[in-house]
Each structure stands twice: as C-alpha cells, then as structure tokens.
C-alpha cells in the first residue's frame, strides 16, 4: 500500500519570502501521479500543482513549483513570493497509474505573516 | 460550470438518526468519491464509485451506505449517526482517464452529531 508523509505539521513564512513544504511517499509502482492541494480556511480543496512521475521536468504553476526526486521518493512544493492568501493547509497526494483512489498525506498548515 | 455541488452544506443531527448527504456533478465524470476530514487524520476515503451501479469500500466505510443509480449523483447515507461521525465530508470526482487524473472536490458538508 502506498503511504504519503508530510513531516512538517506547521510552518510559517514572511510575506514575499519563499517557503518549501516537504512530502515523501512510499510506493513500488514505476508510474504514478503526485499532487499538491491547498485548503484555505473556507475548507475548499484547490488543486495547486500536478506532477506525472514519468516526466523528469519539474512542474511549475506561476509562483508554485515542485522538486520531484523520484529515486528519493520526494515531492516538495516551493512557494515563491508568498502572499497572505497562501495561508492554508497543504496536502500532498499520490495516485498510481490506472489507480482509482488518491492517498493523502496528513497536511502542513502554512501561515503567511505580514 | 457548476462542477460538484454538495447538500446540505451544514447539518446538525442527533445520535441514531439517519442522514443523507447529497452530491451532484455536472461533468459526467466516471469516478466519484466520498472522503471525511478529521483533525489529525487528513482525508480518508469512505466509499468510491467507478461508474453507475458500481461502488466499493474505502478506508473507513463502517456506518455508511452509498448508491449510484445515475452517473451524476452519489449520495452518502449515515444509517444511524454516531458522534464519531461528526466530520467534514467531501465529495469528489474525476474522469476515468486523462486530465492527469486530477480529482475535483465539492465544497464540503459539515456534519455535527449531538
């Protein structure tokens, strides 16, 4: 069974600074998908970024980028130029290729400080 | 583009009562899911459905019943609510293939069992 670990329960960052959230996973699959979801205080789940394991290039979406290390089974999220609206819970998620379900990590609570 | 809508958004019920949470999606996605989110546990899968009339248990199915007579609807029923079922419930959906297997969430249903 796959597991997803987020070792940082809480983090904080000053506005305009850069922060990196960690995620590691355990799988024996060779192809899979990794995701970061953001959950602001409204509790809505919002897709931040997606990475396909067979792609070596790290995904980027505006201020959000990932550092995907397949051999190390690591998938960290970097947020550049942090904004107050980035304050949220961030969940790392895994899905194997042809899988049906996501496996979520426990989440990291990020606070962006003015 | 309505996406996924959940109802009710907020519900207080008494122990032992039957409660049904509704979920409706407008994308004709094949897969639909029900998750619950509790402090310290992240998101845990209750049930999922791969297509109409096909459902399967997730990680925490006890005390819940689902059905899927139509592709667009996936109601979740708590047959006899218990206080341990106080949680935020998320419905989600995704296509069978494509779009990077991204899962899309509803806004959540907050359920309190007293």
Strand pairing plus helix content of chain A: what structural class? mainly beta
Number of helices of chain B: 0
Distance between the termini of chain A: 41 Å
Helix-strand pattern of chain A, N to C?
Answer: EEEEEEEEEEEE
Helix proportion range of chain B: under 10%
Looking at the structure, what is the overall shape of chain B?
Answer: globular
Task: Tell me the span between the first and last alpha carbons of chain B.
Answer: 36 Å
Work out the radius of gyration of chain B. Answer: 13 Å
Oligomeric grouping of the chains: heterodimer
Mean pLDDT of chain B: 92
pLDDT averaged over residues of chain A: 93
Word description of this protein:
The complex is a heterodimer of chains A (114) and B (114). Chain A contains no helices and 12 strands. With 114 residues, chain A is mainly beta. In chain A, strands 2, 5, 6, 10, 11 and 12 form a 6-stranded mixed sheet that branches. In chain A, strand 5 and strand 6 (46-52) form a beta hairpin. Chain A is globular and about 40 Å long. Chain A starts with a strand and ends with a strand. Chain B has 114 residues and is mainly β. Chain B is built from no helices and 11 strands. Chain B has strands at 4-7, 10-13, 19-25, 31-38, 42-51, 54-57, 64-66, 76-78, 87-94, 104-105, 109-113. In chain B, the strands form 2 sheets. In chain B, strands 2, 4, 5, 6, 9, 10 and 11 form a 7-stranded mixed sheet that branches. In chain B, a hairpin with a 3-residue loop joins strand 4 (31-38) and strand 5. The N and C termini of chain B lie far apart (36 Å). The model of chain B has no long low-confidence stretch (mean pLDDT 92).
